[in-house]
Amino acid sequence: MTPDLTLYDLAGADDTLRFSPHCWKTHMALAHKGLTARTVPWRFTEKEKIEFSGQKLVPVLVHDQHVVSDSWRIACYLEDTFPERPSLFGGDGGRAVSLFANSWADTTLVPVLARLLLPAIHGLIHEQDKDYFRASREKRFGPIEDLPSGYAEQIQALRAALLPLRHTLGKQPFLSGAQHGYADYAVFGMFMWARCTSTLELLEPDDLVYAWRERLLDAFDGLARRAPAVWG
């Protein structure tokens, strides 16, 4: 029997533009498991829409009577609930390494990418979200209009921050080893955040990270490459 899954997913003014890095982690995890979820577009100010989850952020996955929020918790839920399907982690050791990759992406890459993407995102979100988005993001990053002046510096900071990933990819094709797994999706979600919202070229074509990103764009019959995006 096909599992009944529903995913609440961040959307722009265009319902088809799904740009959350954390939701993209979940999209890739579902595809890895061979699962399909009905997606519900959600916007920043629609807190009441996911009130049933006991918190205010997406992704939120609903499976029968189970409600799971947070992309990492969703990945663990999928792994534990559907053990007969391809493993996201490849065992307890892989789960531990994937947790590190997820934490590294969230704490190291998100702050740098936010400074590069927030102006573009502000132009893509629904009108109802714009005041909230500006107020909440400017508390952390300063005026949105001032961010483009620092793009060159932030791109260099991003490329430097990717050194551990680049070093690993010099020895194996994916963070997870010979095949991609959740450690890859945790980082790749950040690049989908950029691809869906911005035309900035963050990587040089000869970068090992660029080639890795291309391989993941083609994974699962081009799931990520086919997604509506500003880039390409």
Automatic annotation (TrEMBL):
This protein's name: Beta-etherase
Residue span, GST C-terminal domain: 91-232
Top-level taxonomic group: Bacteria
GO terms, molecular function: glutathione transferase activity; maleylacetoacetate isomerase activity
PANTHER family: MALEYLACETOACETATE ISOMERASE
CDD domains: GST_C_etherase_LigE
GO biological process: glutathione metabolic process; L-phenylalanine catabolic process
Organism placement in taxonomy: Bacteria, Pseudomonadati, Pseudomonadota, Betaproteobacteria, Burkholderiales
InterPro entries: Glutathione-S-Trfase_C-like (IPR010987), Glutathione-S-Trfase_C_sf (IPR036282), Glutathione_S-Trfase_N (IPR004045), GST_UstS-like_C (IPR054416), Thioredoxin-like_sf (IPR036249)
Record organism: Achromobacter piechaudii
Domain GST N-terminal, residue spans: 10-86
